[in-house]
């Protein structure tokens, strides 16, 4: 009986044949339609609004496997060619349709865990595959700022241990290490752009390693850095030219700024405390070596010669200065005494009398004994031909101009 042209009658006819031949191979099994027959079927059934007879009917697992194997064999033999191979969704469907498809696909797989078999297949398929620079850039642009799900989102300041647990973290590190062994990073030797550097600097500004990488990772990084830098100068680490460039960059970035402005309040406090602890009780020679220590001392001497300390005169110094004005003596304040070994800025110098007056605070200069450095400087000044008058704070407070005149 020939197939009826009416779609409804054809559906009934098809069902009758399926029921009658259930469990048997059809007479056309293993045969193919001619091109004319295929065209006739297309004209008859593939029309707008027509519903295929098998819509909504699911294939059994056995049928799916048969179809899959048949297609695989045809692809291998070259009889069947995939027209979509090597084409993007944009090329196949256009930009708008491609966006919808990608969005649907993303929603369908979000949070879904792959089986071990699927993971192995993906891993084996990608082994040894060389990815071009263009493809890498496309992947980077596509993934920029995106995450598969909130669970896989990058957690700032968390280590792998905190995110996945110790065992999983160790396994991941081993896999990454083995995969990257002997391979150079794709971005090795490519300098960062100014914009990228600025973003990295702003992101890490005022943050500790613990805040950026987590406690355990920060500890590891510090240990590595300590081993790498221990006992080495900038020149040994980076070479002469790079060391000079790094110093210049650091100098420009930090010039005229406090630790608080560079690192933030909390980080600055931590750095100062560590620095103070590391230098406590050490001499210049222990800190910098003999030659550098000499240079540092000479530099400090030159600096102190120009420095005016204190910035504001004390009350007892002002009182003595008033007495000298009334008595008509010409004097200089905070004059640097460079002729002696332990040079310093004296409180008052009267050149005409070759007299040095020191107004010593009771607490700071340890009344009544006096400090060791005060005694040394007095001795050195006397040896150089200066007269030295040391007045204690309590004496100056009780003193009048008549009493002061007797000392001079």
Can you characterise this structure?
It is a single chain. The chain is mainly alpha-helical. It has a domain at 312-407: VSR Endonuclease (Endonuclease, Chain A). It contains 22 helices and six strands. The strands form two sheets. The chain has a four-stranded mixed β-sheet with strand order 1-4-5-6, sandwiched between helices. Strands 2-3 form a two-stranded antiparallel sheet. 3% of the residues are buried.
What does the largest sheet look like? 4 strands, mixed
What is the count of β-strands?
A: 6
For the termini, the CA-CA separation is 144 Å
* Fraction in beta strands: 5-15%
In N-to-C order, the SSE pattern is HHHHHHHHHHHHHHHHHHHEEEEEHEHH
Short key terms for the protein model shown above:
four-stranded mixed sheet, Endonuclease, Chain A, 408 residues, mainly alpha, 5% strand
Topology of this structure?
Layout: H1 7-20, H2 35-45, H3 61-77, H4 89-93, H5 95-109, H6 116-126, H7 133-143, H8 160-164, H9 166-180, H10 194-204, H11 209-213, H12 215-229, H13 234-238, H14 240-254, H15 259-263, H16 265-279, H17 284-288, H18 290-306, H19 315-327, E1 332-333, E2 336-337, E3 344-345, E4 348-350, E5 355-360, H20 372-383, E6 387-392, H21 393-398, H22 401-407
Parallel strand pairs: 5-6
Antiparallel strand pairs: 1-4, 2-3, 4-5
Please sum up the structure shown.
This protein is mostly helical.
